[in-house]
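For consistency, the fold was encoded as tokens, as this record shows:
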Amino acid sequence: MATKVFMEALSPTMEEGRLVKWLKNEGDAIKTGDVIGEVETDKAIMELVARGDGVLRKRLINEGDAVPVGTLVGVIAAADENIDALIAGAASPAPAATPAATPAATPAATPAATPVAAPPTASPTAHPVPPPGPAVPSAPAPAPAPAARAASQGPTRSSPLARRLASERGLDLGAVQGSGPNGRIIKRDIEAAAANAVPTGAEGAAPRAGAASAPRAGEAGAPAFRDEPLSTIRKIIAKRLAESIGPIPTFYLTAELDLTRVMEMRAAMAELGPEFKVSVNDVLLKAIAVALSQHPEVNAHWGGDHIRYHNRVHLGMAVATDDGLIVPVIWDADRKRMSEISKEAKELATRARERKLTPEEFTGSTFSVSNLGMFGIDQFTAIINPPEAAIIAIGTSEDKLVVIHGEPVVRQRVRLTMSCDHRIIDGAIGAKFLQTLRRLVENPLMLVY
């Protein structure tokens, strides 16, 4: 019996998925559990798994296509089974396109994604402005360079993100030199190849002698702009933030905290060994989690007709990636030691940047934190992650001249700004929460009591 392959909801918030790569060809034998493709969700690149045995008889979408969850994308059946009715009942697949012209979204995009969907001509190469690079329309393409030809003859090791970027930019992976482990092609290799206008496909790898070099920005003949298709994660970011900053009545509270004792504690812990070394951010995450456990009215979600107060503290921490912002979650952060939070935060941030988070690792947060202090930002306001009640933005720590007991002294200080949903949190509630947080940060031994 035939098995339908659907675009599955690979994360709780996923509304559409983008097929990064087919890993099986039509006619290949398939067993239940085989990975047949890679799908870009709203947060990560995940595996599309076969749910039946047989032969992959039909692939109904192309690599690079984005379709709503529940769309039929393939059919697995016996080699002699008639699947005409299944194919006829499915939406017509997108016409075959070269990697450079692959659209970012199909016309069947869900209504929720419509406000942030990519324009119909999502590819730079499809825009009326001519693309950069040498153009030799009348001369036959030269043979590929030996290095590129040799690379294309064997399997090319590359990351899922690199393959997606290469597909979007029309780059031949066989002509790209990998700088990752064992020659694996990674994101920076694709970016370098695109910057150097690496030729693709049958047009070869070496430009014809005497051909004009690609005009650079600002030079005569250079394109006035470049259109970049929206990635799935960028679409979701746009949609979620539009849901937050518009309808949510937000107010902001800023407090400046003294880090002197935090720095002393960190130095003492570091002397005990590398396993006890923690960052200022780790201490602040622990302090915020403990403060939330003492103020459940802040550790809350807006439910439309109700407010949900959480008894457990699951702390989301914003991580910047090349594709956008991801918020992995430290579960039960208030119950974990600072060393545990430090280790988990580093691991989650690394997995987030590699697009390897599982759905359980980026869903379920009850409160979020964003830190731009490492970029030298003194103070900023962060946008609330619905349905959470608030988010804290952490600026950089720096030495400041302050007056203590009537005497001018230099102390290390940091500014925190709390964005609050006024439907859940009143000003006094937010102020009391920040008072507790100040007491914990300025007396950090309370965090290890």
In short: The longest helix spans residues 338-353. The mean pLDDT is 79.
